[in-house]
Amino acid sequence: MDILIKPIGFIESPFEKKDEDMPIQPGFSDAFGTVIVNSEYLEGLSELDGFSHIILLYWFDQATEEKLKFQPYLDDVPKGIFAIRHPNRPNRIGLSIVQLVKIDGNKLLVKGIDVFNNTPLLDIKPFVPEFDIHGIEDTQIGWLADKLRKKENGG
Hints:
Layout: E1 9-12, E2 32-37, E3 53-59, E4 69-70, E5 79-80, E6 93-104, E7 107-111, E8 119-126, H1 129-132, H2 144-152
Antiparallel strand pairs: 1-2, 1-8, 2-7, 3-6, 3-8, 4-5, 6-7
């Protein structure tokens, strides 16, 4: 089965290349970015301005290889690609939840961006806590639990 995915726009960000300032996830970012939606999809932005946060789905166009195991940022032991968020995956789809600051025509100003400049945009969805994080009190985060605790405690 062939699947055709067509970008609906692109994401502008201050990040041109991977360096020390590039955030690894939106939760670690205070950076602003602009989501540019192609004009033929402008009508689809109707009523989006009532949401404080949106989910961006995008294409990791700068991913360099496909691997099923990779060493994540917060560990020195390789993990299965589906247990991490590394861009070098079979389908190079990325996901970020960002704050929607304002909409001006086909441009969405967002805060918390963590992608390279000119990243192809695949889709936008509203973030709805009651839909997206139901049962959060019972959430487990696997191998990341100890890593995030160490990071929070300065380790």
